[in-house]
Structures are given as C-alpha cells and as structure tokens.
Amino acid sequence: AAAVMSYVAQKCGVCFRPPSIVLIYKADDGDKTRRRVMPVRNFSTFSDCGLAAEQLKNNPRHKAYLEGVSLCQLKKLYGLLRGHLAGESLAQSLEKLGQEETIDPDEDLNKLDDKELAKRKSIMDELFEKNRKKKDDPDFVYDIEVEFPQDEQLESCGWDVESGEEI
Which cellular component appears as one GO term in the record (predicted)? Predict the structure, then answer.
C-alpha cells in the first residue's frame, strides 16, 4: 500500500489574476516549502462564498492539501475574490469582511432571519472560544469569586415587576 502524504499548510491567500486560491505548504517528507495554486472557475459576484469554499475543500484533488485550512478562512478568501470581481478595492473588501465578522451590541437579534441569526451565533461562539481562559493558559485561575458592589441602587426591569394578571 502506498504511504499517504500529509501536508502542513503555512499560508493561504488569494490571487486575483488569474482568480485562484494559493496555498504555501510543507510536505511531511522533507523541509521544502511548496506552493499550490488552485484555480477558481465559474465564480461570479453572485456566487455563494460558503458553498464555493466547501466545494474546494472537498475537491478530491485539493482535499489533502487543505486539511489544515479552516473553512472560515476559505470563505473569507472567496469573499475577497467576490469583492474584487465587483470592482471593490482590497481595502474595501477587507473592511466589508471585518464588518461582517463583528457583532453590533445594539442590534436586535430577534429581528433577524434564521440564517443571519445562525451566522451571528457562530461569530459569538468563535469570539467566546478565542477569549476563554483554558486550564493550560499561564494566567488561568480556578474558581474565581467576584464581589459585586451592593451600595449602588439596583436597576429595576419590567420583568421584575409583579403583574396582576395570572398566566
């Protein structure tokens, strides 16, 4: 049986001319750094970046190489490519992607459709995992107790008020 090669992705980027995803990687058999150019075909300003990223990641020709590249990163690269095809500058595309990746604290999430809500939740989950203190972090402290000041007047909320109506 032939040995299965594994590849370690080092950098992944996008090339606008010709439209392609470029991967810089190392094979496990040596220390040579290699470049793989994966052409992007049949992609327009109306294409779904998530679907295109999934198709590329699951493509049998590229699957082994893209093992170490997250689907989220590929979506971002396709987003940059779509912005370029729409005539946006790289700075504009990056700013637009940055706005999509941040959560507005004043936004009413109850007014969003299911797809947008799922997107916001995944962004919040990602942010939570990034900021979470793990047991192996150097500044991790187990069982922190925090005292909240009691001398300030507590704000009352409409939920707290007893209503005369029984439900």
Answer: spindle pole
pTM (predicted TM-score): 0.69
- C-beta neighbour count of 2 within 10 angstroms: 4
Q: What is the predicted pLDDT for the residue at 154?
A: 65
Residue with tokens 């290699």: 34
- H or E stretch at 33: strand 33-39
In this structure, are residues 94 and 76 in contact, taking their beta carbons and an 8 Å threshold? Answer: no
| Angle made by CA atoms 111, 112, 118, in degrees to the nearest 5 | 145
**How many residues appear in the chain?**
167
CA distance 97 to 72: 12
Residue whose C-alpha is closest to residue 130's, from 104, 101, 110: 101
